[in-house]
Amino acid sequence: MRFLTPLAALAMTTAAHATDIEFWYGNTGSNEKAILAACEAFNASQDQDHVSCVGQGSYEAGMQKAIAAYRAGNHPVLIQFFDAGTLDLMLSGAVIPVSEAMPDAPWDSYIPGARAYYETADGKLFSQPYNSSTLLFYTNKAMLAEAGIEKTPETWEEVIAAARTLKEAGVSCPFATDINAWRQIEQFAARHGVPIATQSNGYDGLDAEYVIDQGIVAQHMNNLADWHEEGLVRFDAETKAAKYNAAFSAGECAMIEGSSGGYTSFTEALGADAITVTLPPMYEGQTRHNTFVGGASLWLMKGHDEAEVKAAQNFLDYLRTPEAQLEFTAATGYLPVTQSALDLLESSGRADAPEFATAGPGMETLGAPGNADTRGIRLGFYVQFRDIFAEETQRAYNGDITMDEALANSVRRGNELLRRFEATYAAN
Amino acid sequence: MTQSPFRSRLIALLFLSPLILLTALFFYWPVAEAIRWSFFLEQPFGGGSTFVGLANFRRVLSDPEFWKSLKLTGIFMVTASVPAVLVPLVLAMAADRGLRTSRIARNVLVWPKGVAGASIGVIFGFIFNPFVGILTPLNQLWPGIWSPGTDGVDAFITLIVANLWNGIPFNFVILLAGLQALPDTYSKAAALDGAGPWRQALDIRLPLLAPQLFFVLVLEFTESIINAFGLIDTMTRGGPGGATTLLVYKIYADGFKGYDLSGASTQTVLLMILVLLIAAAQFLLMERRVKYER
Lengths: 428, 294
Description:
The complex is a heterodimer.
Chain A lengths: L3 H13 L2 E7 L3 H17 L3 E7 L3 H14 L5 E5 L3 H5 L4 E2 L1 H4 L10 H4 L12 E6 L1 E6 H6 L9 H13 L4 E5 L3 H11 L6 H4 L13 H15 L3 E3 L8 H6 L3 E7 L3 H8 L4 E4 L15 E8 L4 H15 L1 H11 L6 H10 L10 H8 L15 H17 L4 H22 L4
Chain B lengths: L8 H29 L2 E3 L6 E3 L3 H7 L2 H33 L5 H7 L8 H11 L8 H6 L10 H29 L3 H9 L4 H12 L1 H26 L11 H11 L3 H26 L8
Helix pairs in contact in B: 1-12, 2-12, 3-4, 3-7, 3-10, 5-7, 5-10, 7-10, 8-9, 10-12, 11-12
């Protein structure tokens, strides 16, 4: 085998100049199937490059393995990383910004809401947006109708009024969510136009500090705690399905706030006609700003030869085509994020098809007017902060501490992380 | 003085070298690396590191979260280890008495050893599920009384029970072997003097079993600190609200989920010192009372 491999490789390069590259991704389930389908379609579309797509089980595991592999020098050239790791990767020195590697690609076609998240303050785009999701609001039509609710709630006030009606009608789980910071504060703060940390969520400097213990964010968190106490809001562990989105699929919970990427799994379980998918709720009297793009993006890693980088770029080019984007959207519920893909969707006349149901509200919330605080999250060790936030607020929901104490603790521990991150990268 | 079976020390070393190499590669080298990183601020992707002296230790030692997880580790060590020795002790004594089912029990009780910690975690996760597990009837009587997903104490109890189940086979085997090696002349002599089964167990078997008990207790104390990881990762993930974030899980979460290699290394060094201290204390305080000669 050892003698054969170089020979075989030689035979292949002389025959077709094929370059084999590896691509690591983290998704599972129906989203993984769509990624593998895209890989196959790319390999079938040409015989110059061959990409092997390798699943890592989850975003977090993918990041962990990438760190270990990069330190050992056997990392692949192309890796999908999740939103929360953005700043860690930008400062890692391990990646090549895509706008530098591929200056001629049509980066301007990306809608600002999807692009700003992965872009530095001076306009350098680090990664190519891939499976882009955002927060949407889902309801189970039948459950709402049975309780006599005619209109899909649009504001938090209406959501909670509906939840009370549902509870009175005997629904054990009117509104479900989880304690993840992505849902509770990131997307909430963005669409209400406020930051979660100073320096525009870190975009303007590493010396940012968390501010989630004040303003409308703190008010909302306190409301959630009250509504939870009242039995209107349920979290993962309090549902029979043990997960808010699975509980929605199972028809246990009537309303959820969830990723657009979950849409396909909901329609598979309940049917496309049985649910509504709309913009995430705002508080009355607030102006709607854009939500953040969630999900993950594709990063070019350093340390590979020209041929491999070129092959990776070809794959990125392929994934960026409007056709490939729409294919992926139809299979998953993730959003098309370039203007060209949206144009194609419009001109193809499929915009009203059920498999593109998330595209409408998704683009509306991603494309809402933004400000300096709604570009994204640019905070160090942010993955750990999400865990801290979950831990502290869980204690508040259990009644061990008040929500204000939980938020104050999160800010204190989060700021310690930020200062350590600053010190870790001070040498750069 | 005994004759060495090998002609020269070199040959002995040669035979030992695979093991030495493995230990060095998978234990001493990572330990050395952890100690080194505990004095640096290390970037996750290896971009650069800054020497910070004892700053990492100062930070960790002044962090209330570290002390909280250390306290939880201590509580777990005592509450999980003691039943994990006592229950197998009772079982071993029963099996040793040659009761009707003891032959079967001797086999069956060893089986759990074949199940990995992570699998045990998954299984007990189901068993203790508040909606479909064995305690569901409790929740029907008093809604919300059993909720390991939201109640820290409930979650802690599930860990202790799973750890106990995990510890039974090994401790049972060691204690039973110890009991069966006891010469029955003592028991017979005691029986002649009118000692009943309870008196024999307390005054003869237990003292003579001291070496095995000591061994099992030392192992269980140190193991419970480290081994809880598999159970925590599959059952509670340190939650709810950090109620089961023992130090060993906090190190994993900080290092692998938070990319804080320096903080995780510093806590690893501290945990290592702690385990050494506990083992040393046990040897100093307890071993003097253990008589190995019979």
